[in-house]
């Protein structure tokens, strides 16, 4: 009985180590290289507004 449990434990550990590598080799996975082409943004210069930034006072300085 002890041998059977030991064989099962060793088999389980081997499967956990080798299993992911076997699954990877049997599945069809495609590797995508390069960058996704960027979509050109059509910006009308007449519709651009300037932002008004206000200085933030540093409250930590006392």
Record the SSE blueprint.
Elements (H helix, E strand, L loop, with lengths): L1 H25 L36
Q: Which structural category do the helix and sheet elements fall into?
A: mainly alpha
Report the sheet with the most strands, covering strand number, pairing sense and barrel closure: none
Determine the strand fraction and express it as a percent band. under 5%
Distance between the amino and carboxyl termini: 78 Å
Q: Would you tell me the overall average pLDDT?
A: 78
Query: Roughly how many Å is the radius of gyration?
Result: 31 Å
| H and E string | H
Task: Describe this entry's structure for a reader.
With 62 residues, this protein is an all-alpha fold. Helix content is 40%, strand content 0%. It contains 1 helix and no strands. The protein has one helix at residues 2-26. The longest helix is centred in the N-terminal third of the chain and has 25 residues, at 2-26. The protein is elongated and about 85 Å long.
Characteristic terms for this protein:
62 residues, mainly alpha, 1 helix, 40% helix, 0% strand, elongated
Compose a concise summary of this entry.
The protein is an all-alpha fold and 62 residues long. The chain is built from 1 helix and no strands.
């Amino acid at each position: 009985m002890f041998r059977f449990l030991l064989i099962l434990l060793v088999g389980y550990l081997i499967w956990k180590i080798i299993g992911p590598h076997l699954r990877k080799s049997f599945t069809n996975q495609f590797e995508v290289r390069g960058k996704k082409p960027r979509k050109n943004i059509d910006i009308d210069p007449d519709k651009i507004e300037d932002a008004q930034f206000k200085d933030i006072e540093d409250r930590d300085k006392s």
